[in-house]
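Sample log: Cell wall biosynthesis glycosyltransferase.
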Amino acid sequence: MTVKVSVVIAVYNPGKYVEDCITGLLRQSLTPDEFEVYFVNDGSTDETPARLDQLAAEHPHFHVIHQESSGWSGRPRNTGIEAAQGEYVMFVDHDDWLGDEALERMYDYGKANEADVVVGKMAGIGRPVPQELFRVNRPRATVSNAPLIDSLTPHKMFRREFLNEHGIRFKEGRRRLEDHVFVVETYLRAKNVSVLGDYLCYYHITRDDGSNAGFQRFDPVGYFGNLREALDVVESLTEPGALRDKLFSRWLRNEMVERLRGQRLLKLPEDYAEELYTEIHKVVTERFGPGVVARLGLTQKVVAGLVFADRYQDIRTLAEWEAGIKPTGALTSLEWQDGTLRVGFDAELHIGDEPMTFRQEGERRLLGLPLSDEALGALDDQGIKLDAPLAKSDVDLVVRHREDARQFYLPVKSELHEVAAGDGVLRQRISARAELDPETAASGAPLDKGIWDLHLRIKSCGWSKETRLGAVRGEDVEAGRLAALTGEPQRLVLPYWTDGPGNLSLDVDQHTNKLEGEAVAFMPPAEGTVEGSDVRLPLPLHIAATGGDTVQLRFERKNVGKYPADATLDGRIATATLPLDKLTGMRWAVRVGVPSAARGERKWTRLPVDVVVDASGAAKVIDRHTPSATKKAAAAVPKKKAAAPRPLWRRAAGRIKRALTNQKKG
């Protein structure tokens, strides 16, 4: 059988982190004869080479190539390309891992769309990854119609014959940005690039020890020398004009301007920061024109303009101001409607503890930046105006899996509001409503079992700031925060407040035992009643679809028995018929049984109430922390006065006597 995919992994002293990479490969849905793996050991000095040799001995489709250390990942990746037999080549870092179906899905998607390059959705665990690129599937993407240029890491699938046809290889030696040079050439030469956005293919991690190669401080002279090589590729494969300017703006924005903003600049040693700025200034003035700067967001344009004008101290002043910018969000409403959680919220940017304000001059809305008159004049000379594009401000609400960082954008409708904040000054508030359907939120698929956190992201004037939602909330929000049964088969989805800050998260399919705590908070015992043989209890549940066998109550007593009773539901009130003949004369714990799709059965949660049935068959609902009648009677009997402890000498004499007796027996 033809090998579909060759996975190439450059390996150098990964230690324990290679195990996650290996596990992800062993879980792939492609069969072993459909893919192969090449670990190219680039002179590792830890125990990894022996581990990989053992792995290859156990799995014939795994191969290990040992070579002398080359100092970086370019040469071992090229070695892997030469050894590969697959139709496509997939590059993986030794400390990252793949989604279980990543190779199969990416290969099938690439074949279906005749793609030379396949880009699979990425998740960043402790590090940023592109967001906009993966909002939707893009079967025929180009650098013109999609933000491909935002993703220049090599963790993609490339058609092997395409690489060989054009002689595309990684630059070798100890260097930076060799992946940029490689990937941008493939984008510009490919007949088609396909972006798979509806399945999480690649997990890009930050190691606990902080030793990821890309996170180490670099030599600015060498780094920006390597960056020029990527610019050279763009110049050789494009004509001067809008497309080239668009591509160049990616490096100006990400590799230069963003390094000179906020805490990212301020946390650097000052001498290193000045050296970094000097090299950025050289590249900017050598290679970029006004058309490149025009592609940036407003505040990015400002920093770029200050670089062109060589005003480093003004850049530091602006960075100190920007370091105080933070996003804020207030949860205004929360309610279930037909199985969908509707989330209302307001969002606004703050500077420190105060809302960000804008100057109002007639119809103009201007940023109030802390810049000198000379700096403002330099920007004006370059045609860079401080008009704030407030009409383009936007907000996203994202649901993100806590363990593996998978995230999905929720449908949001927003309104922009200008709020007066004094004479000639205004604020901008964004009011929004989002819909979270647990059965479709994962790009049309159900959210998996686990904890999902809600994050809002404000985009305005060149800033993109993210924060959690829920710690600030309206008084009426709590009433709508109920668990819901959704889907088929049904499972429980529980909105809850996190410990400490009180942010909003979802527990999907009872990943934790939080329902019990929620029941305690929601159910005052007095609300439970018994009428004849029927017990009526309020449950902390929104039932998205009534009908069917959704909820049961169970009455149980240790060493006696468990007696289930079907419950009928009216809103949030569950009514069940008590089996009085079995319960008479005892006190019984009450549990609610809710379907669990993952377990394939009910998960039982104890409620904060008990049912007591006296000898005559009369029943009542009580707080489960109330002592039983037996315990009350016992408590009423006067206790005997405790005897005084024996003197120490008597206890010691007793021990000696026992020791002598045991000695005689021996």
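Observation: The chain has 18 helices and 32 strands.
Observation: The CA atoms of residues 558 and 588 lie 9 Å apart.
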